[in-house]
Amino acid sequence: MDIKTKLKAARIAVQPGITFWKAWSRPLTTYGIGVAILGIYFIDWRLVATKIPFYRKKFDEPTIE
Question: Which ranges does the record mark as transmembrane (predicted)?
Answer without folding.
Answer: 28-48
